[in-house]
Design brief:
Number of helices: 16
Low-confidence stretches: none
Number of domains: 2
CATH class of the largest domain: Alpha Beta
Strand content: 15-25%
């Protein structure tokens, strides 16, 4: 196989993952590529984890600050977390070992809006970026870097890091070149310019990353696949939620509040999002577009069918089957898919201008429309806010979806008061469970409560919610948003003490 290092001046920097990892030392801040299991470095983090473990066995301190695009993979988050190698982590994560270290207090975690992280790095709020470890598809003949299957914060880390380690991964299709749109004109105030995006398919940057060759201290050649997790078969709850959302969108078209081809779509990752995309495949809408974070299997199907004309994102989140399909056919998708830096894919300005329809998952919502998307029972971090806030706060329509119960019915997703606030009632417009849909637009808090309880609550909890609401009306110190503060979190306390929210 021909080398993917096509620029001669870089070839003398090729080394092993073990030797490259030795360049990372205790106390460094390291920016890693990777977004939802796509485009993360495959070998250097594993080698680094082994070296951290050996240092700890010698009684030496060795922990790093870890910055990424979003969640990564067991070979990165999992490997470094398992050896207690991460002192600080940002932004979004989903690895179970990483999650446990955060909740045990071993690793500090800053859960930052994905669009905010790059500017915070530029501003220096997180400290100095000592090293970047970035996967690329190739080093082009002109010395630029061909991006991999995710862009994330890679542009920023390549710019801001004092030193750079590159992993050149030949598993990634060489035909990915031309799919990316790397915008270099983003800036801090007072030098910000309008982001010149008026359509999801607009290309406003360049194909590849720039890099200062003097900062590149090591290059590791790899040939390993992304962590691509198969999607679960669609269940009845996911299908029901998708059907409610599609009916809602169809009615918005009938009411002339949406065009026949809708507006650009954004969806989170997971079973429900994939069910919505599957529903669109068989639905009445044509010439769809997407302005989102990740491209999933269902979106590829929509592009293949002609139902969707273009999809803009920052990364792939594909099953193994579809990852191979993308690798085999990358050239044919380059006119339909655009991968951007996440400070652009999640930027409030184009989201607002384009009128994005946002649909994200949640852990729980309360009767007034406040949403918790990050914490279990108030204190325990699950994954993080990711880009849901970027889209929710700026979308034309913002919807949140979840099954109405969890843990076999022991937990209600609709509660009197959420145990943690991520998205307030001011940003949440639509709530959907398998039970039904609550359109909260233009409603007062008490009106929202009636619609949410009636349409979205599980039958096992509907009467309990109504009882709480009726009681709150009699004891609250004001009747705008009635609460009994002594009872507002009784359901959460009962679950922690007994294992169920039911009395």
């Amino acid at each position: 196989m021909a080398s993917r290092i096509e620029n001669e001046s870089f070839r003398h920097k090729v080394t092993t993952a073990e030797d490259a990892a030795k360049l990372i030392r205790h106390g460094m801040n390291v920016g890693f590529s990777g977004f939802t299991g796509a485009g993360y470095p495959k070998e250097v983090p594993v080698a680094l984890a082994a070296q951290i473990k050996e240092a700890h066995e010698r009684g030496e301190e060795f922990m790093i600050g870890m910055w990424t695009g979003a969640s990564t993979a067991p070979e990165l988050d999992g490997a470094l977390a398992e050896v207690d190698g991460i002192s600080f982590r940002t932004p979004y994560q989903s690895d179970p070992i990483m999650r446990n270290k955060i909740n045990a207090g071993i690793s500090e975690y800053a859960d930052i809006h994905l669009s905010h992280l790059a500017p915070m790095v530029w501003e220096g709020f997180l400290g100095k970026l000592d090293m970047a470890v970035i996967e690329v598809t190739a080093i082009a003949e002109d010395g630029e870097l061909v991006p991999s299957s995710s862009v994330g914060n890679n542009k920023t880390y390549l710019q801001e890091a004092e030193q750079i380690i590159l992993e050149v991964n030949s598993w990634q299709s060489r035909d990915l070149e031309g799919m990316h749109d790397i915008y270099y004109r983003a800036a801090l105030p007072p030098n910000r310019l309008p982001v010149p995006l008026t359509h999801p398919g607009d290309r406003i940057g360049q194909r590849n990353f720039r890099v200062d060759p003097n900062k590149v201290v090591a290059i590791v050649e790899t040939d390993g696949p992304d962590r691509n997790t198969p999607f679960k078969p669609l269940d009845d709850d996911s299908r029901a939620i998708a059907a409610h959302l599609l009916d809602f969108l169809a009615n918005e078209v009938r009411q002339h509040r949406l065009p026949k081809n809708l507006l650009p779509l954004q969806s989170g990752v997971g079973n429900i999002a994939n069910a919505v995309l599957a529903g669109l495949l068989d639905g009445p809408f044509d010439y769809l577009t997407s302005y989102t974070e990740v491209i999933q299997d269902g979106m590829v199907d929509l592009l293949d069918s002609g139902k969707m004309t273009v999809a803009s994102a920052t990364a792939f989140s594909l099953s193994p089957e579809y990852a191979h399909k993308m690798n085999d056919n990358a050239k044919s998708y380059r006119s339909k898919i655009i991968l951007r830096p996440q400070e652009i894919s999640n930027h409030p300005e184009p989201i607002r201008r384009l009128g994005v329809i946002a649909c994200n998952g949640m852990i729980e919502a309360d009767i007034y429309g406040n949403v918790n998307s990050t914490h279990i029972m108030g204190s325990k971090m699950q994954n993080g806010i990711g880009g849901s806030g970027d889209f929710t706060r700026n979308a034309y329509i913002s919807a949140f979806v979840t099954p109405s119960t969890a843990k076999g019915g022991a937990i209600s997703a609709l509660v009197p008061m959420v145990s943690h606030h991520d998205h307030t009632e001011h940003d949440v417009q639509v709530i959907i469970t398998e039970q039904g849909l609550a359109d909260l637009r233009g409603l007062s808090p008490k009106q929202r409560a009636k619609v949410i309880i009636q349409n979205c609550a599980h039958p096992d909890y509907k009467d309990m919610l109504q009882e709480y609401y009726d009681h709150a009306l009699t004891v609250a110190n004001g009747l705008h948003t009635p609460h009994d503060l002594r009872q507002a979190h009784d359901w959460h306390i009962r679950f922690l003490e007994t294992g169920t929210m039911k009395p």
